[in-house]
Prior knowledge:
By secondary structure, this protein is an alpha+beta fold. Helix content is about 20%, strand content about 45%. It has two helices and ten strands; from the N terminus they run βαββαβββββββ. The protein has a five-stranded mixed β-sheet with strand order 2-3-1-5-4, with helices on one face. The chain is elongated, with a radius of gyration of 19 Å.
Amino acid sequence: MYLRCMVKSKENRHPNYFEAILQLRDCNEQIVGLVQDEISRGEVKLTKTVKVSSGFDYYLSEKQFAIVLGKKLLSSYGGYYNVSASLWGEKDGKKIYRVTVLFRCCNLKKDDLVEYGGEKYRIKMVMPKEIMLQEINSGTKIHLKYREMKSLKKVN
Length: 156
């Protein structure tokens, strides 16, 4: 999944300069390694990496790179993806924004058994923005958004 993102070289930047934070949460080592490879191959500067309790924060010099990488992770692995922008300041009358790109992995896969609302379900499909469950007894199918995943319990 080599990511090509056209980045203009900006030589006169402070060594700690960043425009984006890529937040990886609940991701396995394979995805973390893939992200680190993409960052090292791209023409983007990694200012710093912060280990947090549920993942990593990567401080990157290019907003567009972080946004595109987050979308690629979402389409390849499924999960929750969100981009938020915050006003950082003004330069020459132009507002400057920093973005935070959150990618939360889905640690569930097709045919896993889960409990939701006191009922047992089988995961039928893991899609980029939601999960489809099928109740074991009745066969009723429901769709859950990733923000509702916290209420799922994996059953052995």
